[in-house]
Amino acid sequence: MRRGWLALAIGLAAVPTAAFAYIGPGAGITLLGALWGVLVAIGLAIGAVVYWPVKVLLRRRRRRAREAPRESSAVR
Q: Positive or negative, the Cα torsion across 62, 64, 70, 72?
């Protein structure tokens, strides 16, 4: 008997019903702001991961360019 009531309760809870509720524009704007924040954070994280190796390569090139004239002047 208990299983019958449990199955009935689960069945009734699973049936969708119409919710006549009003969500004002403030909630929508808040949701959009949070969504934009998440998207910007993900974009910045991906950008940082992509930019880091480029920054290291540029730093190495600059260091080599600074050291190259010293070596050529020492040969003369």
A: negative
